[in-house]
Fold this sequence. Notes:
By secondary structure, this protein is of the alpha+beta class.
Amino acid sequence: MKKINLILFSSLFLLLNNVYSKEPSNFGNEWPSYVQGEAKIVDGDTLIINNIRIRLFGIDAPEKNQICKNNYRRAYNCGHTSTEFLKKLTTKKLIPSMSKRVTCYWKDLDIYGRPIAICSTPDNVEGSRIILNSVMVFFGHAVAYKKYSKKYVEFENQAKKRELGIWQGEFDMPWDWRRKYK
């Protein structure tokens, strides 16, 4: 596990140019509402900040009990893995220099009344921020939710190509899994 974390940590720093944003204001007037604070992670695409339940925009992560197969065809709980990866991104476990403060910007709510947000956390490097939505897809712990946005398709293609996360083996797309099992 330490080796995997080291590989992820190294890869993250080498590839972060693709997932950085210099200022939260990059979202401009298009993303008028926001919240900041420590995040409680619900699953790989949902978090809670200041009692506001937030859905990450443009991505879909495996469900909590979703089972996938790795490259050795062994079953594992990819929903749990996705959740744990997002927890590490928001609690300094993956990148010790990162702040635990998460900022989420949104303009719309989903059908359950949750903000659909782009969320980020500072990495303490020249004011840059790591966009959580991008990182989750980039490392294969979520997929681009193309039904709602094409914003993360390139990150998904990179994860597929490198066979990271769920792309290392077999899995049902999260929306297909929900339709089958929920």
